[in-house]
Amino acid sequence: QVQLVESGGGLVQAGGSLRLSCAASGRTFSNYAMGWFRQAPGKEREFVAAINWSGRSTYYADSVKGRFTISRDNAKNTVYLQMSSLNTEDTAVYYCAQGSGSYYYPAGSPFTSWGQGTQVTVSS
Fold first, then answer.
1. Are 83 and 17 a contacting pair, CB within 8 Å?
2. What is the secondary structure of 40-66 as a DSSP string?
3. What is the number of helices (H) and of strands (E) in the chain?
4. Within its chain, how far is the Cα of 74 from the centroid?
5. What would the pLDDT profile of 80-109 be if each residue is shown by its tens digit?
6. Longest dimension (CA), the chain
């Protein structure tokens, strides 16, 4: 059974930075693509970023491109989301997810396991 545990959320002022971490267990971490999603109050969950098994390919939502960086350390079974230049629209619960395969395909890639989420609040 896959377990994904996010950490690193919190309250930050606009313009600030945070780094989220997601520790995975239960499957061979390096075999799977990983992703970050977020859900703001009253809104649907949305894609934020994804990374292939090797870490060599990354993908971002337009809203975070240039501000957020996804990375992974396969030796530590951990995926990260470095967030910079945060604004109030980034306020959401952020979820880590594990893909069903090694690669993420922007046209459609299922994510089969989810963490419990970590709250990020950006104050103005």
1. yes
2. -TTS--EEEEEE-TTSS-EEE-TTTTT
3. 0, 11
4. 15
5. 999 999 999 999 999 999 999 999 988 888
6. 41
Q: How far apart are CA 68 and CA 60, in angstroms?
A: 8
- CA distance linking residue 58 with residue 64, whole number of Å: 13
| CA 84/CA 82 separation, integer angstroms | 7
What are the residues facing 47 on neighbouring strands?
37
What's the CA gap between 21 and 4, in Å, rounded?
Answer: 10
Write the single-letter amino acid at 120. Answer: V
Angle CA(108)–CA(23)–CA(86) in degrees, nearest 5? 70
Least Cα distance to 117 among 31, 11, 34, 36 occurs for 36
Neighbours of 109 (CB within 10 A): 18
Task: Tell me how far CA of residue 41 lies from CA of 48, 52, 61, 89, in angstroms.
Answer: 16, 29, 19, 11
- Which pLDDT tens digit goes with each residue over 1-44? 899 999 999 999 999 999 999 999 999 999 999 999 999 999 99
Query: CA angle 41-67-45, nearest 5°?
Result: 25
